[in-house]
Write a structure and sequence with these properties.
It contains 14 helices and 20 strands. The chain is of the alpha+beta class. The chain folds into 4 domains: 26-115, Beta-Lactamase; 140-235, PAS domain (Beta-Lactamase, 2-Layer Sandwich); 245-398, Beta-Lactamase; 414-564, 2-Layer Sandwich (Alpha-Beta Plaits). A hairpin with a 5-residue loop joins strand 8 and strand 9 (209-220).
Length: 572
């Protein structure tokens, strides 16, 4: 051991170690698991136990000086101290906790050294980890949370979440955040079981709904007591809104495509509108759909006739219920939304080349929710397509009309008359019934054209039309067969009724006098009557032949009279 008079900053580890002359058992120090040093009054420092011998070998002179400085501080104050001393280089620095105990009678100072390097490193790592976790929570779009045993939030992000401030969330019952009420065991914020990526709808402060994906786990004590729950919510509202928008767009395209395809494939315009009504109702979850077409200005002589006429319907709602909606559209409304009889109504005008020619009306129960922008867009698109189809419908009717009617008088032409008469005969043959055929041929009509011109001849034909129409019923058929020849089918009439009609026609011949070529060539009528009875087996051609023959018989008999054809022979 170095002499006490010689001051040195190094440890003297050579030679035999003296028995320490202080009131601490050397054996006790040897059993101590941490390094122990003694700093002598003269400034020397020596290991006091085997652990210190090995530890001292790693100390540099500057490290020893730091330990001695701490010992001098404790000795000068004459009391025990605990100090922190850093030893080693910056790259391999150790953090030492040194407990310093002055010995009695100037016997030096004992230094109990504890290496806290690992503890400090772990503590710093924990602090850094907590700071990193805090930073992640701050910048994360997720909503991390924790609830306690009082079923209230114990932790929420400092910035808040879903539009709530952190303070407001801390005083909010987690159950109140749910859009729909649910039992407590099903509330993820109060989870009693592990929850993995479940979809949940929460209520924002402004009442709007937010969709989140929640994962949570319960916090359970060792005794099984529930201590709360911890989890995270990821806000996916925008993604769900995008998905819902895409779904609605696809649905709109699907419905529109189906209707356009039906319009393309269907030949009958009426069938096209029927498909459109069903597809539109199903596509928008409506119970009823009505499609109306606007009547043209000359569609009816009766001014009380509604401006709109039902063209297609889906559902069993009476089209008369649409009167108020049609009135609004007829006044020029671009769209109509209202509540009628517990049903919400959405309507749009059908247009063709900028002009309204109809209307599309949807009826849906209020439980299905209010109409949205996609619904309005879809009915607008469909209404435009319907407008084109209604125009085709009108054109189809016009073509059909001119193909079945006489251009001058508007009466049925020969082909339409024969088709209609054939249907009547088939029905009467099957179900029972009868009728009478009347042929009318004008007398001296050629002289009207020759002397007064074709305009007068046309006027005369129109006058004859009026006479025939005024003495027949809507269920009867009236036709101009060509030239000055007309034919009538008095449906359900017997021979007596047919004779009465013939007498009425002849009684109106005075109305034709203004069109006559002269007194000697008065414009008149020759009429032939052929009654048809079920059971004779007479065909259409046979009936027509009998009527035509009776008419010519009247002409040959002096004109201005009617002749009755002999009854048809009953087939054996």
């Amino acid at each position: 051991m170095a002499p006490e008079s010689s001051a040195s900053s190094t440890l003297d580890l050579s030679g035999q170690r003296e028995v320490l002359s202080f009131e601490v058992s050397p054996a006790a120090l040897e059993r101590y698991e941490e390094p122990v040093f003694r700093v002598l009054p003269a400034g020397f420092i020596e290991p006091a136990n085997p652990v210190a011998l090995e530890f001292a070998s790693r100390l540099a002179p500057a490290d020893i000086d730091r330990l001695k400085a701490a010992a001098e501080k404790s000795s000068s104050m004459n009391r025990a101290l605990v100090d922190m001393v850093d030893v080693g280089t910056e790259g391999k620095q150790q953090n030492l906790q040194v407990s310093l105990i002055p010995l009695r009678d100037g016997g030096g100072t004992l230094l109990f050294v504890r290496d806290l390097t690992l503890d400090n490193s772990l503590r710093l790592a924990l602090v850094d980890s907590r700071r990193r976790y805090k930073d992640f929570i701050e910048i994360s779009t997720d909503f991390a949370w924790e609830t306690g045993p009082d079923e209230r939030f114990a932790f929420v992000p400092p910035r808040g979440a879903l539009g709530y401030t952190a303070d407001s969330l801390m005083v909010t019952d987690p159950r109140a955040l749910l859009v729909a009420d649910a039992p407590g065991t099903d509330v993820p914020f109060l989870a009693r079981r592990r929850v993995e990526n479940e979809e949940l709808w929460l209520r924002r402060p402004d009442g709007r709904a937010a969709c989140v994906i929640v994962s949570a786990m319960p916090l359970i004590a060792r005794d099984g007591k529930w201590l709360g729950a911890r989890g995270v919510c990821r806000d996916v509202t925008e993604a769900r809104d995008r998905e819902a928008t895409l779904t609605r767009v696809r649905n709109r395209e699907r419905v529109l495509t189906r209707i356009v395809r039906a319009f393309r494939d269907e030949v009958n315009p009426e069938a096209m509108l029927g498909v459109a009504a069903e597809a539109l109702a199903r596509g928008l979850g409506a119970e009823h759909c009505h499609i109306f077409r606007a009547l043209s200005d000359d569609a009816s002589v009766n001014p009380t006739t509604p401006r709109f006429q039902i063209a297609a319907r889906y559902g069993d709602l009476d089209p008369a219920e649409a009167a108020a909606v049609l009135k609004t559209i007829g006044e020029g409304a671009a769209a109509v939304e209202l509540l009628l009889g517990g049903l919400q109504v959405l309507a749009a005008p059908a247009r063709y080349q900028g002009a309204s020619n109809g209307a599309v009306i949807l009826w849906r129960s209020v439980e299905r929710g209010t109409w949205n922008d996609d619904d309005r867009l879809l009915i607008g698109d469909i209404a435009n397509q319907v407008g084109i189809t209604i125009e085709q419908f009108t054109h189809h009717e016009h073509v059909l009309k001119i193909s079945r009617t006489d251009a001058l008088t508007g009466l049925l032409n020969r082909g339409a008359f024969v088709d209609g008469l054939q249907r009547y005969l088939v029905r009467h043959t099957r179900d029972g019934g009868h009728g009478a055929l009347i042929y009318v041929d004008l007398d001296n009509f050629k002289q009207v054209n020759d002397t007064k011109g074709h305009k007068a001849g046309d006027d005369a034909l129109l006058k004859v039309r009026d006479i025939l129409v005024q003495h027949t019923r809507p269920t009867d058929l009236i036709a101009r067969l060509g030239g000055d020849e007309f034919a009538l089918w008095l449906n359900g009439a017997d021979l007596a009724i047919a004779q009465t009609r013939a007498q009425q026609f002849l009684g109106r011949m005075t109305d034709l006098e203004p069109y006559s070529a002269g007194p000697a060539r008065a414009l008149g009528m020759s009429i032939g009557i052929a009654a048809w009875e079920r059971g004779t087996g007479e065909t259409l051609d046979g009936l027509l032949a009998r009527g035509d023959s009776a008419m010519y018989e009247a002409k040959r008999g002096g004109k201005g009279k009617y002749t009755i054809a002999p009854s048809a022979q009953v087939k054996a």
